[in-house]
Design a protein that fits this description.
The protein has 154 residues and is of the alpha/beta class. It contains 6 helices and 6 strands. Helix 2 packs parallel to helix 3.
């Protein structure tokens, strides 16, 4: 079984160092590179061809939303897992629309982050439970009117 090749993208060095130290203890994962912003990430994806990118949103030069859009268009085989502190449902929706495979908050437990990486590496989607709850609440609040629901089949 080949290892999941991971690119870490965050403008905070200590966070990248912590993620690298934590993830290296998982035999099925390999950190192949690190970037401080979306510009660096896009260049490294071309060179390193990671399976999964752990991507922050708020970064200098190119933010995670634009980087996700660019990378998903050019390198659809690379899966992007957003790892951020931003709980705004609009960020979640926008990132999923531009191609992110998952979204987790930085308060995630390590075991759940590992599960998220493995899930998106398999080509599946992953939303942490708190993110799914926020998204469901947002959809209920902005929800569709009855007139936009499909007609009954009976």
């Amino acid at each position: 079984m080949s290892k999941i090749r991971i690119l870490l993208v965050d403008d905070h060095t200590i966070l990248r160092e912590g993620l690298r130290a934590f993830l290296r203890y998982h035999a099925d994962m390999e950190i192949v590179g690190e970037a401080r912003n979306g510009v660096e990430a896009a260049a490294l994806v071309k060179q390193l061809r990671p399976d999964v990118i752990l991507m922050d949103i708020a970064m200098p030069e190119m933010n995670g939303i634009e980087a996700t859009r660019l990378i998903c268009e050019k390198y659809p085989a690379t899966k992007i897992l957003i790892l951020t502190q931003h709980e705004d449902p609009q960020y979640i929706l926008q990132l999923l629309q531009v191609g992110a495979s998952g979204y987790v908050l930085k308060d995630v437990l390590g075991i759940d982050l590992v599960a998220a990486v493995r899930t998106v590496a398999r080509g599946e989607s992953f939303l942490s439970p708190s993110v799914a709850k926020m998204l469901a609440q947002e959809l209920r609040q902005t929800g569709n009117s009855k007139s936009s629901l499909p007609e009954s089949l009976t």
